Amino acid sequence: MVAYDQSTGTLRYSEKPIYTTSNGCPINDPESSQRVGQNGPLLLQDFHLIDLLAHFDRERIPERVVHAKGAGAYGEFEVLDDVSDLTSCDMLNGVGKKTKCVARFSTVGGEKGSPDSARDPRGFSLKFYTEEGNWDWVFNNTPIFFLRDPSKFPIFIHTQKRNPQTNLKDATMFWDYLSTHQESAHQVMQLFSDRGTPYSYRHMNGYSGHTYKLTKPDGTFHYIQIHCKTDQGSKTFTNAEAANMAAENPDWHTQDLFDSIQNGDFPSWTCYLQVLSPEQAEQFRWNIFDLTKVWPQKDVPLRRFGKFTLNRNCENYFAEIEQVAFSPSHMVPGVEPSADPVLQSRLFSYPDTHRHRLGVNYQQIPVNQPLRAFNPYQRDGIMAVNGNYGANPNYPSTYRNMTYKPVKPSQEHERWAGAAVAQQLPVSEEDFVQPGMLWEVLGRQAGQQDNFVGNVAGHLSGAKDGVRRRTYDMFRKIDGELGRRIEVETEKLAPHPQSQAKGSAEPRFKVEASQGMGIQV
Ligand code: NDP
């Protein structure tokens, strides 16, 4: 048994187990190898040593290509308001109903050892263990994303990661992509506001970003987006504070979450829905399947429905948080995907990643196991550890009765889905309207516009001249004054063109607050 001692911050063990090899054989001395005589060589028969080394050599599994660095904890969701008019979802069925969950927060672009405070969107994922299967929310801390066509996702992510030649983060590569794919302007505005550097995981909101459907057994449905608002209050670092924290404590967000839960200070988030009927969606100014757009709250107000609280740390990070496997395709009756093309591609890509990282039986890993699952037609495969459904037939057998629960899919709404596909248009003036709305929001908060300009300038100044100029034009389309200010501030920091042309010894990437923290973008 293991217990956490709050006064010393250490784990206490109340038992004295007998140490053995992995096959259970007791070992006298785990720290000396069998050898011939005093000086060796070693013996092939020393299974303990070989077992230890061979296992050590295989400790690493592939880290996630995105969202590699993260932290998580367990908790509970509670229904606060009745939403039975919208859905039959078991978890939302009745005010006061509670459902256990596990959460994981993460940066996106950095490797597993990268600093928590880097400028980056944050992953915001939850797995709810409902009576009718696991329902995963695979959200971000921003309500939108850089793209609306999924084929751009791997391409875009490459520009956030390392240059294939230098193996360095590359400001030119990043802004080259953004300035030639300007549907990303809205997310750029989010990312380079101070919300791009949250103070901690506890102090940020989570947004579904995508549109989903909440459905009822009669086949009717509503389109929804989910907002999780931090009850701790939204709190951010400035660029300089984030850079300092990256140097002082690269694991700050991880530590903050663990310590606060360990100290009984349980973080919570209140959850809201934005709801549109299919008819309203057709009339709506914005394409609800476009991931670069929000639903303005004055048009679609938030409707509270629940709250989740994180109240228990994991016992083992690797087993429970590194191996937790979220997917937007892990849905339950009462919830369905919309036709959003980026969501549709994630329905495939997330489980595909888990099969690669964790194996085809990833749902059998304890943290991923649903309360009840019975699918004996899926058999064998690597690490089939749950008994592999024993002698149950592996086909729909006349010798084994099974109940197939009738679940009626929602009405398709084909006309609108077709219209939405037709609306996947090239970048237009519409793409700069909502970024402009956010620029106005920042203007209502003291210092936030100045910080935004400084945050962009510090990073953009590391890009080559032509890319910088194209990016100024992009910001001018959002707001003329914004574009002008970014140009002035960036050019103050950018290397002189002649020194670039001569290939002087000046560093290609200026190491200052906005870049010196292994910044993701
Ligand atoms: P409102 O003008 O009605 O309200 C302000 C919105 O801005 C709130 O949703 C708030 O998000 C968000 N916000 C406040 N401060 C910041 C900040 N420093 N950085 C980023 N976001 C901030 O909002 P509208 O709905 O009319 O949208 C205006 C703009 O706000 C949008 O273009 C979008 O960029 C941004 N936004 C909108 C959201 C939405 O779902 N409608 C959600 C988040 C941002 P919150 O209350 O969730 O903290």
The CATH class of the largest domain is identified as Mainly Beta
Which runs of at least 5 residues are low in confidence (pLDDT < 50)? 501-518
SS elements, strand count? 12
Radius of gyration, taken over Cα atoms and rounded to an integer in Å: 26 Å
Question: What's the main sheet like?
Answer: 10 strands, antiparallel
Shape: globular
Task: Quickly give the CATH architecture of the largest domain.
Answer: Beta Barrel
Mean pLDDT: 92
The small molecules bound here are:
NADPH dihydro-nicotinamide-adenine-dinucleotide phosphate
Determine the fraction of residues in helical runs and give it as a percent range.
25-40%
Q: Can you tell me the number of structural domains?
A: 3
CATH topology of the largest domain: Catalase HpII,  Chain A, domain 1
Going by CATH, the homologous superfamily of the largest domain would be: Catalase core domain
Q: Count of DSSP helices?
A: 15
Q: Output the helix-strand order.
A: EEHEEEEHHHEEEHHEHEHEHHHHHHH
Strand-residue proportion? 15-25%
Structural class by helix and strand composition: alpha+beta
Distance separating the two termini: 44 Å
Task: Write a structural description.
- Helix 3 packs across helix 13 and helix 13 packs antiparallel against helix 14.
- The protein has 521 residues and is of the alpha+beta class.
- It is globular and about 80 Å long.
- It folds into three domains: 59 residues, Cytochrome C Oxidase, Chain J; 265 residues, Catalase HpII,  Chain A, domain 1, CATH 2.40.180; 70 residues, no CATH class.
- About 3% of the residues have low confidence.
- The protein has 15 helices and twelve strands.
- The strands form two sheets. Strands 3, 4, 5, 6, 7, 8, 9, 10, 11 and 12 form a ten-stranded antiparallel beta sheet that branches. A two-stranded antiparallel sheet has the order 1-2.
- 29% of the residues lie in helices and 16% in strands.
- NADPH dihydro-nicotinamide-adenine-dinucleotide phosphate binds next to helix 11.
- This is Catalase.
- Its EC number is 1.11.1.6.
- Belongs to the catalase family.
